[in-house]
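Memo to structure team: turn this sequence into structure tokens by end of day. - J.P.
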Amino acid sequence: METPSVSGIGRISTRHSGREMPMTLRREPTIAAGESIKQNIPIGFRQGCDNGGGTGAAPFGRRLRNLRLQVGLSQKQLARSSTLSIRAIRDLENGRVRQPRADSLRLLADALGLSAPQMNRLANDHSLGFLAGAAEPAVSGPFIGREQELAALTTMLGAEHHRLITITGIEGVGKTRLALEVAHALEAAEHSTVLWLPLDDDQLRSGRAPVGAPEQPTWLREFVHSGPDSRRRLVETIGESNSLLVLDGARPEDELADITANLVAACPRLRILVTTRNPVDMPFDTLFPLAPLPVPSSDTESADLDKVASVALLLAQAKRLQPAFRPDAHILADVARICRALDGLPAALESAAHWSLIYSLRQLAHQLTTEPLTVARRPRGGHQQPDAYASVHHTIATLSSRQRDLLSTMSHKTSRAIDGYWSVPEVADKMGLTAAECADDIYHLLILGILRRVDHHDVAMFKVLNIVSIAGQNAIAGQNAAA
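Reply from structure team:
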């Protein structure tokens, strides 16, 4: 039986350019049995969940600040709309005044577009239960195998000298899910406000939303278009508040390096987390490459297989879809083969779990030896998301001819090491390159997420991801022919 998510509905409006802009509020999806309810509570209100959402769960000032940021108003704009002074707004948000007078509360509610019940909940320290214009993405299944990355990122973002981090990696490796967990952790630990901007949404980039979808705030659409006015407005909106801005799915054409640098300089308590397949001009010291999940070696004992992160994730996804699923030693061996063939990429493993509804795991393991891309893609029907590896051709198109040659060599020629792993000197010798040239190219491919690294006898070794090699064969050939 599914547990209902904590959510609510309503409408609020923002004032922009002298006109009212309604914003429809969304319900969050229900969650599967065994998943945390906390994951589905709207960002900005999760603090109230820890104490049951009752009195004392979250100070009035923090809730007011969250509302102001979600509507997209600066303190100055809220003061003007409510006819209160800027100092009054600042004192309320900073906690110097813990509760406004009744007439001030009414003016604030009118300026924020709150209904009477919402105003009541604001005044009485209950969660407001509605979402900002850009809601966090929905998730499916447990968070497995990224505990070290989560700890590292939350520690880094908690330090003053790491206010901008760029998570890089191939599509399907789990960048968005990791960013979401980081946002939840920082929000719970520091009561920071999280602003989530999905930059990979084509409709958001065009400034248009599908019919019936919640309308994104105007300031959000303007920021995606990188207009200077919208950047100033975002700076005014965030101000000195303790905030995390997540820019999810950035593309090279977004040219975020200067934008993020200016935001960090202008907002002293702002941290920014970017996810992208191709970091291009993002500062070198901000890069955080996300590798695929570990996969079992061919000699891993059956009793130890479910301790390997990729195996644990595939088993969890299969059990979520088929609650009666109980793997034996033979099934675990098939699961291990699937995980190795799919490179331990979470999105590909989720696709394989869905295909297990119509194929046995033995059939899937066999199919991966003949038609691996059919297992890696999502079944058609229902809500469509990009397949794992769907972006491989685009990634390869950005490579130089030497990098494509190197990728082709590592994919299709036999290395002297086991399992097709190459050391930098070995690739350099095979390609006729200097060690420095080869190291530069391998570093770039690793940042893009299309290589896996292992350490073998104190030597770093690299291998092209299995299906990246298969999916990229035609792309490499086509790009080289065009060059």
